[in-house]
Amino acid sequence: MKTSDIQLAEMLEELNSRGKVRIVLEAGLYALILLLLVVGNSATLVVIALNSRMRTIPNLFVASLAITDLLLGILATVPIGFPTLVLSKYPFSDTTCQYHGYTVIVLALASMQTLALMAVNRYYRVVRSEKYRSYFTKKKTVIMIGLSWFYSVWAPLPYILSGHKMVFHPFKFFCYLQIDSGPFTAFMVTVYVGPPTLVIMYCYLKIFQTVRSHTNNVHSTVFGGNQLNVEEIKTARLLFIIVVFFNLCWIPVMLIDIVDTIDGKWIFPRETYVAYSFLATVSSALNPIIYGLLNNNFRREYLQLFRCRHCRKQPTVEPFALMERRKKIKPTSATC
Predict the structure, then answer these.
(1) Which of 194, 174, 175, 198 is nearest to 186 (CA)?
(2) CATH number at residue 274
């Protein structure tokens, strides 16, 4: 029996030995995160779909990110990860485990590619604005997003086609790569994580330098002969904050995987791997909160969406008010 198999068996035993209080606390907190993930990202997509003013080019990238986050919730985490945490075992088949691990990897990498496209979009809007309209039409933007998804879908295939399988990790409570997957981890970091990270760093560095050099113009700034208003700078800042929080969640996750891969075994205590899974899920739930706090348009649309009952009452009140006004105006017009 391999060392990794012995480790997994010991982890499963520790998972099963949790007390009821710990199960309730972990499952309750995870359920709250999942609720925020599903409701928040669903609201984001509804707001963009129903309001033509919100269907801007930057928001197409926001929609793509919301789709990856929502799919991670409804395809992998809610139906598979959450029951596993509650039941203290993996109650599904090996086929489901392979699907689970494949889906998690694809959606996480698709989010990474989308963030890189967001950075490129803001770079051309702020730094190279004279070329922005020729590169970023709605049609071209949709094609970019589609290609980034297609690119991500192929990511786990070298691992699977080489004969490796996803394994259930009891401490992470989801299926993922085996511990001896060093070459594939290096491939994934080199091809799917490294390049978009460098693109994001370069783009936002250039954006920061450009905005900083024009801080004296508060209300509007001219770049390359085109006018760029404060809202565009705010959008760049918002998307940068999304990248920051994404990295705050995912850098610890990547470091844990890298350390384990180099060491050749899972070396951290259970609490570390639970935090690992919680952080990965939180990253998918945070974006709608950031939009609501930092973007006036999203905040207004969220409020209207969640006050839909109040909005439905308004049509019945408004005609009555208009009728009363007519009653008051009518006698006046008659006396005239």
Answers:
(1) 194
(2) 1.20.1070.10
